[in-house]
Amino acid sequence: MIRRTLKEIEQMALGNGLDIKFYDIDVQGISIDSRTIAPGNMFVPIVRDKDGHDYIKEAIQNGAIAAFWQNDHPYPPCDIPLIFFDDCLIALQLLAKSYRNQLSIKVVAITGSNGKTTTKDMVTSILETTYRVHKTKGNLNSQIGLPLTLLEIQEHTEVAVLEMGMSERGQIERLSQIAEPDIAVITMIGLSHLGSLGSREEIAAAKLEISKGLKSNGVLILNGDEPLLKVDFNRIIHFGANDSNDYFVNSIKQEPEKTLFLTNQSTKQYCIPMIGKHNVLNALASIVVSEQLLVSEELIKRGLEELKMTGMRMEQVKSKDGFTLINDAWNASPVSMIAAIETFEALVGYSRKFLILGDMLELGDREKDFHKEIGQMIDPSKIDYVFTIGDLGKEIAVEAKKKFKDDSRVKAFQDKNAVTQEIRSLASPQDVILVKGSRGMKLEEIVLELS
User: Fold this and answer.
1) In CATH, which superfamily holds the domain spanning 315-450?
2) Is the pLDDT of residue 162 over 80?
3) Which residues 6+ apart lie within 8 Å of 441 measured at CB?
4) Which band of pLDDT confidence, cut at 50, 70 and 90, is reported for residue 451?
5) What's the pLDDT at 148?
6) pLDDT digits (tens, 9 = 90+) for 34-59
7) In this structure, which CATH number among 1.10.3720.10, 3.40.50.300, 3.40.1390.10, 3.40.50.150 belongs to the domain 3-87?
8) Alpha helices, DSSP H only, in 79-199?
C-alpha cells in the first residue's frame, strides 16, 4: 500500500494548507471508511449519500493519523492534520494516478458488459505463475474503487490487474487516464446499462474509452466478434469465436465441472475448472494478455487449471440434501442469461434440471421484451422446471409456459422462501439447479438457504 509522508501526499494530490509541523508524519494506506480504518491510515471523506466529513473524528479515534478536507465544508477541525482540496474524490483520483506513476509496474485494465471479473481472475491466476500480482478485489472497479485499488498496491508488485466498471459515458475514460494501462481488454458488449445509455452503440463507445489512457506503446485486446468495437490504435489484437480473429477457439469439450478447449495459436489443450462456452472466450482473452507479458505456454496452461474464481459466477455448490446448485447470481443481462442457460442445457450427468431466474435490471424501455425472449428460448426437452422471481421474471414464466406441455413445471414467485420450499419438495440428489438474476435480486440467498 502507499507509504508516504503527509507533505508528499499533499504534493501528489495537488492539495494545500497542511501545517508545516505535520509534514514528516508517515501515512500508511488510504481509507474512506471510518469503521475499517487501520492505524496509520489517511482518511478521505467522500461526499455521497452520507458525507464522509461527518465521520472524520470517528476515523481519527479509530487510528487515522490525518484526513483530507473539502473546501466547501465549513468549520474544519483544527486539532488534527488536514490537507485541503476543492473536491476530495478528484484528490483521491489524482493521488492514485501519481502513485501509479511512481511504481515500476505493468497495468492490465479489463472492461466489458460481461466477463470482467472472470477475465480478471483468469489473468491473475496465469500471471501469478510468473509475477507478483495485485488485482481488483471484489467489485472495487468504480470512480472510487479503482483509485483505492491502486493505492493498495505494494511497492514490489510487478503487475496490476484492474477491473473497470461504469454506469455512464466518461467514466471509463477517467479510470483509464488514472491507471494508464499497458494492456487493455474489452471482453464483450451486451445490454447492461441500456437503460442509462440507450443503445448498444453507446455502450460500445463507453467501453472503448478504455483506450484513452492506454499507453501509446500499449496493446488493445478486443472481442473481434463484436462489430461495434472499432477504434484507431497502434496495436490491436482480436480474439473471439470466429476464425477471422487473431486468436480463436478450434474446439470445445464440456465436462460436468470443467471445460477443455483448443485454440488456433497452440497445439496444447487448455482446461478451465468451470463450465460455459462464454468462459472459454474469457480464457482466450486471458491467454492473449499473458502472452503479451511473455508468460510461457506451460505456465498459461497451469494458471488456467489452478484458477480460483470470485464467487457467484457459475459456482458449483453441493446442497445439504445432495443436489447440485450452480450459483451464477452475481449479475444478469440478456446476453449472460442466454449463455448461462445454454451452458446449463448442455450439461450431462444429472437426472433433472431446474432453472431459478430473477429479474434482469437496468434494461430500459424494452425490459419486458428481453425477459419474454429468455422465456421463449428455454428448451422443455432440456429443462425440467422453470421457477422465476420478481415482476420482470414473471414475463419469463409467461412465455416459458407456452412451450411446456405441463405448465405446472413453470411457476412465478415473488418470495424467495417460497422458491426454496418448492425446491426442497421436488429436488433429489441427482438433480442440478441454476440460480441466476441481477445483483439487486440477491438470489444468492436461495443458494445459502439450500446449501
Assistant:
1) Mur ligase, C-terminal domain (3.90.190.20)
2) yes
3) 329, 358, 359, 361, 389, 390
4) confident
5) 97
6) 999 999 999 999 998 899 999 999 99
7) 3.40.1390.10
8) 88-102, 116-127, 145-151, 171-179, 194-197
